[in-house]
Specification:
mainly alpha, two-stranded parallel ribbon, 11 helices, 58% helix
Length: 212
């Protein structure tokens, strides 16, 4: 369930060249997303009463974002936000929540026999970092300490990218204090193992970011 090079949203167009990286089935999903964008862009705005409305999906969601969605096919709101990046708020312009985009991705993927949540390594790292931050916050609350006293942001990012499988690999990460591994290693490794199990991913990822 991991793909290389499935970048997030953001950026401008570049349509046809971006779509070259898609399979024929993924191009089918992209076509449906384009149709949705076109239908929303053509619909009249319901904004009134002096309140500012969400920026229109059809006018502002880029081709780059649609290609990223067709490649990764997120199944939930968190995945949608990770894949769309800075363009995620614009997706709410469809129905106020982004649910219409998720429904399209789910139905299209089922019909075309594509897996959902086919994230790139980078997208998985963002999602895992969120899980780790949540676990860190719970531990910090329990111990009545600031979150950085549990594990620093830089080390948390390394854990999310490299997915250590044991305390030795955790300790080998650059800048990882031995006391952090002793006090919180089980919690951190458990978070990584759970995420990897849920997404069918292997533990460990070769990189030069481990300490020598």
């Amino acid at each position: 369930r991991t793909k290389a090079g499935s970048g997030g949203g953001g950026g401008g167009g570049g349509g046809p060249s971006l779509a070259l990286a898609l399979s024929s089935a993924e191009l089918g999903i992209l076509s449906q997303l384009r149709s949705l964008r076109g239908s929303v862009a053509a619909a009249p705005s319901d904004a009134d009463g002096g309140e500012e409305s969400e920026e229109p999906f059809g006018a502002l969601v880029s081709e780059r974002c649609l290609v990223a969605l067709a490649k990764a096919r997120p199944s939930d709101m968190e995945g949608l936000a990770v894949v769309a990046g800075a363009e995620a708020p614009r997706l709410r312009g469809v129905d106020g929540s982004g649910a219409a985009v998720l429904a399209l991705l789910a139905s299209g993927s089922s019909r075309l026999q594509l897996e959902l949540d086919s994230f790139s390594e980078e997208q998985h790292a963002v999602r895992l970092a969120r899980r780790l931050r949540e676990a860190r916050a719970r531990r910090a609350l329990r111990d009545d300490v600031p979150p950085y006293a549990v594990v620093g942001d830089a080390q948390l990012g390394l854990i999310a990218r490299l997915r250590p499988a044991n305390e030795q690999e955790l300790l080998a990460l650059a800048g990882m204090p031995r006391t952090t591994v002793q006090r919180h290693g089980e919690m951190l490794l458990g978070c990584v193992a759970t995420y990897c199990s849920q997404h069918g991913m292997p533990l460990g990822r070769p990189s030069a970011e481990a300490a020598p």
